[in-house]
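Provenance and format

Records in this collection were gathered into a single text stream. Each protein contributes a sequence line and a token line. The two records reproduced below are adjacent in the stream.
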Amino acid sequence: MNDDIHTPADAPKPVLRLKSQKFREARQSDWRALSTQLDKVEKRGLGSFSIDELLNLPLLYRSAMSSLSMAQSISLDRNMITYLQALCVRAYVYVYGPQTRLKDVLYSFFVLGWPRAVRKLGGEIALAFATLVIGAIAGWLLCAHDSSWYNVFLPGEQGSRGLGSSADDLRKTIGGNPEDHALSPFAVFLMTHNVGVAISTFAFGAVFGLPTFALTLYTGITLGAMVWLFAQQGMGFEFAAWLTIHGTTELFALVIAAGCGFHIARRLMFPGDATRKVALQEAGVLTGTAMIGVALMLTVAGCLEGIGRQMITDPFIRIGIGAVMMTIWGLYYTSVGRRKPGESA
């Protein structure tokens, strides 16, 4: 009797009937089919698929996910689980991931998003432009009435661009530098200054637009004061040409940035039918798109400022380049991306 009694340690161990090999053999054909389809889509894109292949892809993906779940739950060998994980990740990208191609992203931004965003900000941009012009006129008139205002507006502009500078001294600051491609100190100052002003005018729109208005007005005042300084020495045309080659792009970008700031302020104070949170979210999307464009415009202006303005010294050519750039921006913002009749918004 005692010989027939087995202790638990002596009992035979249960045999796992579902071995890894049988599990693989039962499902491997679906895995291979999915892997083949993924290889094809990675090389030739989903556009090369037939309708049946497109319909079959999510089915194979779900089958692989089911196999992975089962393999993990019954603790099959690690190599198989790793293979299925990698296969499912590859398939997920094409089944659920975005299918937008790079050229579609670029088209969506440059042809649709950017110019349309700027057009929607037309009222605020007009306000920013008016503020800049008023500031420029005020800067000119104040300096013309009392020259000491120049040192108030531009306290750091002494030496070769101060009140005591001669026409020759001023001419040297705008004559270009054809033998050296490096930026002149004044070009570096202008680029850094305007990039900082563009970012600030946009960001400070959240403070009800008052700092945005002040910064834009001050930028116009300093511009007017500098034009007055050169004009009183009979160099107004040369200075305008020197400024035009990059200024039509750079100042335009600054005005758009200020318009973005004014738009943020307007939606903050007058959200309309939407809640203030929703209004600011919508304003953030719109102005964010425009500000990406502003960054690109400032990059273009930096190239014109750092290279073109230094290498090109003829005032008529400078004005011509500036006029061409202004025409390009004007046509781009007014014409590109307009909806066709009947097209939904």
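Adjacent record:
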Amino acid sequence: MSDRSECEDMSNEESAEKDELMKIGQLTPRSREVNIIVKVISKSDIRNVTGRDYTIRRVADALVGDETGCVYLTLWDDNIDKITEEATVRITNGYVNLFRGNMRLNIGRYGSFEILDESPITEINSENNLSDKRYEQERRYRRYGGRRDYQRRRRY
């Protein structure tokens, strides 16, 4: 019995750690499972892009921040209309990626967000924009076939 309760305590501690809120200043290009509260500073114009499945999708960037800094949040399709300027948003299980060498915060397929009625954010540090900094992007290799280290034979 005591083993079982210890396991339950450990799993509760792990889930509490995952739910712990981060600050924008703590984000890195490899941040995953991001739980954060941010305030929307501004939104870009909506752009239409062609997805991998050749469907037209809408995308916009929202500059979001807290007292430690700001970063661009990428919004897709219906989420563009749900998030407005000056809104305070709690993002759960988001992630960070690099787009053209710049950090972007994403909600993603497995993440979620909610609009908060009251904002715990009193001031925003717009001087520390993490999306303005350039990061070295790792090379991505083809999904199938991997990297070619051999030389091709010449045909005569």
